[in-house]
Amino acid sequence: MAYLGHQVRGFDVDKQRAASLSKGVLPIYEPGLQELFSLSRTNLTFGSDPAVAIRDADVIFITVGTPSLPDGRPDLQYIDSAAEMVGKHLTQSTAVIVNKSTIPIGTNRRVEEIIRKAYRRSKPEAEERFAVAYNPEFLRQGSAIHDTLYPDRIVLGSNNAQALEKLKAVYGSIIDQTFEAPAFLPRTETLHRVPVVATDLASAEIIKYAANAFLALKISFANELAQLTERVNADISQVIHGMGLDQRIQHQFLQAGLGWGGSCFGKDTAALVSIGQQHGVDMRIVRAARDVNYLQRERVVAKLTQELGTLEGKVVGLLGVAFKPHTDDIRDAPALDIARRLLARGATVRAHDPAALQRARLECQGSGVQFCESVDMLAHRAHALVLVTEWPQYQSLPWERLASAMRYPFILDGRNALNRETLEWAGFHYLGVGRADRPSTQPPVPSLRAVRRNPITVRETEFGRLRSFDELLTQPSPVPG
Ligand code: UGA
What is the pLDDT along the chain (481 residues), one digit of tens a residue? Predict the structure, then answer.
């Protein structure tokens, strides 16, 4: 908003966060955000006094979190306290209060009620012409700036026509694409106008859940198919390619792998199931999508167990902790869930991430996971690596060095993102998701169980001698690096 030319005052209850934002220190890693922030500083202030932020604002965005309660319903306490604060401090009677947080159907009415009561309490004589709107967020972490400046659509929900007009004006330069595109993120030549869906409050509330649930179930559909393609020696990537060329299907969000993570899909699908229940509708498809998703994590454990015989005493290195590349967000990250499952079965778990290590160390203290600064530390005398997050950096790792540092060079490509041939040439036994377990150009590297059954197995590879498991156990690998 500040970049577009609006005067923006940011308020946070966390004084420290507001103070560091004032100094230009961002609390999260998001590509391009620091640059955009620097370009917008003249229009942007932060503080921890709600009165300063709220009182005469024309438009107030509520952007607080709505985390899941144990039963799947979203926790609305932060929304409620923000609404209370807005009602108390608002002096601009024609303000539009816009909710951006993802909230169950009907919650915006409740927000309006809370604001109204607090407004009346603090200003019994004042006129009340403010309106409430819902403006669901569709940005993806990791491409947040792109999705904000060049969105597929803007959804505006309100039962007040003037509020809708005001919001269209706020978003005017995005809708018409008349703002100056930042140099680091140019506009695609084909984008001239962004569609606006102006609707009632309840429809806008459902659009948000429906969009996330549909994307989530596309992913789960691909993952369920991947189980089948594995069994029949087919390749899920080719199946998806063939399917996705149908213009009605498309390829996006059909990438099979370890399933979705993050703060949105899990929470929003759980909320949709719970909202359905409250209204007597069994959201069977959404429930199934969730089941398939979480099964993918257990399947990693099953594949490792099948390969290594047992996980007790084995060292497993996870490549990637963030729930997706280009973010340091580890909320509902598949890596942490997989780590928990492996630790419970007696494995030693190490993890590496290009951006999320610091956060993971802080938030996962006492978890038992060993966070490693380098991939060499991760691979040193490990029995298996699992690619959990498809960071581009992982495409070109020193695979030969890593394979020879491991006790047993097995890699499970949980995102089908690595080049199988490269890995196999480097000496790895490669396994993907939804792909047959067969080497592309070489005879298969014996599985750990096979090697254990035959301890004298020694094989010459392009890059040297692959040592037997017993040898590997008794002779330390060279120190990495
Ligand atoms: C998601 C939606 O894509 C956004 O439109 C929405 O605004 C956001 O939630 C939200 O509700 O705030 P986000 O969770 O940031 O965005 O990231 P996604 O790109 O959707 O990825 C979610 C998860 O799905 C990641 O773990 C990713 O690895 C996984 N994924 C994605 C797959 O497993 N396969 C795919 O084909 C695509």
Answer: 999 999 999 999 999 999 999 999 999 999 999 999 999 999 999 999 999 999 999 999 999 999 889 888 889 999 999 999 999 999 988 999 999 998 888 899 999 999 999 999 998 887 888 999 999 999 999 999 999 999 999 999 999 999 999 999 999 999 999 999 999 999 999 999 999 999 999 999 999 999 999 999 999 999 999 999 999 999 999 999 999 999 999 999 999 999 999 999 999 999 999 999 999 999 999 999 999 999 999 999 999 999 999 999 999 999 999 999 999 999 999 999 999 999 999 999 999 999 999 999 999 999 999 999 999 999 999 999 999 999 999 999 999 999 999 999 999 999 999 999 999 999 999 999 999 876 555 444 444 444 433 333 333 333 333 333 333 333 333 333 2
Largest CA distance in the chain: 90
In terms of DSSP bridges, do strands 464-466 and 459-461 run parallel, antiparallel, or are they unpaired?
Answer: antiparallel
44 three-class SS: strand
User: What is the Å distance from ligand 1's center to 140 Cα?
Assistant: 6
Q: For atom 34 of ligand 1, which residue has the closest CA?
A: 255
Where residue 291 falls (left for φ over 0; alpha for ψ -120 to 50; beta otherwise) is alpha
372 is catalytic: no
Task: Say how many Å lie between the CA of residue 159 and the centre of ligand 1.
Answer: 30
- Ligand 1: centre distance to CA 138 (Å): 10
Of 264, 295, 413, best ligand 1 pocket probe by most atoms within 8 Å of the beta carbon: 264
Of 64, 97, 207, 264, the catalytic one is 264
Tokens representing residue 386 in the block = 């699992």
Q: Which residue type does 239 have?
A: V
